[in-house]
Amino acid sequence: GQQLNQSPQSMFIQEGEDVSMNCTSSSIFNTWLWYKQEPGEGPVLLIALYKAGELTSNGRLTAQFGITRKDSFLNISASIPSDVGIYFCAGFTYFGNEKLTFGTGTRLTIIP
Amino acid sequence: NAGVTQTPKFQVLKTGQSMTLQCAQDMNHEYMSWYRQDPGMGLRLIHYSVGAGITDQGEVPNGYNVSRSTTEDFPLRLLSAAPSQTSVYFCASSYSGQGPTEAFFGQGTRLTVV
Predict the structure, then answer these.
(1) If you measure CA to CA, which chain B residue comes closest to A50?
(2) What digits encode the pLDDT tens for the residues B17-32?
(3) What's the CA gap between B9 and A109, in Å, rounded?
(4) How far is Cα B70 from Cα A20, in angstroms, rounded to an integer?
(5) What is the DSSP secondary structure assignment for residue B91, as one 8-state letter?
(6) Which one of B65, B79, B90, B114 has the lowest number of neighbouring Cβ atoms within 10 Å?
(7) Are B12 and B81 in contact (CB under 8 A)?
(8) pLDDT at residue A92, as a whole number
(9) What is the mean pLDDT of residues B74-96?
């Protein structure tokens, strides 16, 4: 089946630093999604990408759909304490089974 | 504005017991799905439904049953609980047409099987 490799697994950064994480796949996706999960909550959608090469921003967050359709990255600029959580990428292919495949997550911790 | 509602939030079961995890959405979404989340493994799809009366298996369906009699509800049944089913379970819903893109998640049910 499809696999998503997400890296890094965890990050420890200081407030104000920029953050970068990425996801790579062994196969092509038509859609890439980025979710954030806070403790005790379900994942919340941050950004959705639908076209290869697409670059989309949501406030301090920027994500890109890789040109090969096998990868995506998420950047967070000027991190703040509320950015703490686990970030998941997810991919979907229209003509495969109707399933989202999730990455294993990047845990972001902000050091005071 | 309820979104996706899961009940219960916490549950402890003994091995061999059965139970139903409830999931309801009020957004008229056709696509609904169940995931389990285990440490270091992300979210894995258990079962999904593209509309009332239609269900299909996901990546890890063994030990679980689902049915979809209405658009709003998608319950997950554990037939005979096992310690390996200790996990956090999430229900999600999304507009159909292009599959489960932009899924909205419930708050989760934390299940412990002893």
Answers:
(1) B101
(2) 999 999 999 999 999 9
(3) 26
(4) 42
(5) E
(6) B114
(7) no
(8) 85
(9) 94
Q: For residue A81, report the phi and psi dihedrals to the nearest 5 degrees.
A: -55, -35
Amino acid letter, B54: I
Tell if the CB–CB gap between A48 and B43 is shorter than 8 Å. no
Tell me the pLDDT band of B39, cut-offs 50, 70 and 90: confident
Q: Is-contact A4 A91, C-beta < 8 A?
A: yes
Task: State the smallest CA–CA distance between residue A63 and chain B in angstroms.
Answer: 15
Q: Which of B33, B101, B105 sits opposite A48 (nearest CB)?
A: B101
CB atoms within 10 A of CB A51: 12
How many Cβ atoms are within 10 Å of B73's Cβ, its own excluded?
A: 15
- Has residue B114 got a pLDDT over 90? yes
Chain B nearest-CA distance from A36, in A, is: 11
Return the structure tokens found at A46.
């941050």
Regions in chain A scoring below 50 on pLDDT: none
